[in-house]
Amino acid sequence: MNDKIKNLHNYKIFKGLSHEDIELFNSKIEKQKFKMNDKIIEENEEGDSLLFLIKGDISITKSLTLLENKSLDDSDNIEKEFTRLKAEDNIVMGEVSLFSNKKKRTATVTALSDCLVGFLSNKNFFNICNSNYEVGYKVIYNLTNIITENLIKENRNVLKLTTAFSLVMKK
Predict the structure, then answer these.
(1) Do residues 55 and 118 make contact, with C-beta atoms less than 8 angstroms apart?
(2) Which residue has the higher pLDDT, 67 or 4?
């Protein structure tokens, strides 16, 4: 599946890049098909690529129990769905493992329909950024904005959960 992704210019990560600049990345993206209910990535597994949802719908879930508290049979693992997204949302995933020393995925992504996902390896991503500093700067800047937006959303979620917990504890 070597045909290129036609709408990469719609992804926030490529904001402000020319068609030629985007093609540097497009030529390195490998596509993979997933069937409905397939796990695309799993929380806490090692991540070595950015992912682009090209076709289909996904669910993003996170474990509500800490890894060190989980039993071996995984029966106490409670997951919460945080969002559902469609290919039309033009999302990129895996950005946290790109910059984290531990390279761990922070959520599980499950296909809600047949999906097509593009994978850009961390190695190829950084090779492109290192060989063209201007393009690299723009993409890293865009990723910083994406990560910051996600962090703000997560902080709001923590505040909501803390508020709910404190209200329950008052009763």
Answers:
(1) no
(2) 4
